[in-house]
Design brief:
The chain is an all-beta fold and 117 residues long. It is 0% helix and 54% strand. Strands 2, 4, 5, 6, 9, 10 and 11 form a 7-stranded mixed beta sheet that branches.
C-alpha cells in the first residue's frame, strides 16, 4: 500500500522558513519522480515542485516559488523534502506530497503552512 506522510508544517512569520518532509512507503521510492503540491483556501490544488528519480535528477519549480523553495530527496531514507525560505502570505496553504504511479496519482494527507504578517 502506497503511503505518503507529510510533516513540518506550522505557523511562520512572513520572511521566515520552514522545511517540510514526506516519508514514503509501499512502492519503489527511488524509481519515481516525487512532487509537492499545495492548496490554498478557496483555490484549486497547484503544483509546486518536482524532483526526478535519478540523482542528480531533473528538478522543476513553479514560477511562484522559484528561487525561494528547494526540493530534495534522500533515496536511502525514502523521503522527500521542501525547504521553503522567504515565505510570503500567499504561500499559506495545505502542502501535499505526491507520486504518480500510472495510472494513479497518490497523495499524502497534507500539512498546513500558515504565513502571518
Amino acid at each position: 500500500e502506497v503511503q505518503l506522510v507529510e510533516s513540518g508544517g506550522g505557523l511562520v512569520q512572513a520572511g521566515g522558513s520552514l522545511r517540510l518532509s514526506c516519508a514514503a512507503s509501499g512502492f519503489s521510492f527511488r524509481t519515481y519522480t516525487m512532487s509537492w503540491y499545495r492548496q490554498a483556501p478557496g483555490k484549486e490544488r497547484e503544483w509546486v515542485a518536482s524532483i526526478a528519480a535519478v540523482v542528480p535528477g531533473q528538478i522543476r519549480y513553479a514560477g511562484s516559488v522559484q528561487g525561494r523553495f528547494t526540493i530534495s530527496r534522500d533515496n536511502s531514507r525514502n523521503e522527500v523534502y521542501l525547504q521553503m525560505n522567504s515565505l510570503k502570505l500567499e504561500d499559506t496553504a495545505v502542502y501535499f506530497c505526491s507520486v504518480l504511479i500510472p495510472p494513479r496519482r497518490f497523495w499524502g494527507q497534507g500539512t498546513q503552512v500558515t504565513v502571518r504578517a
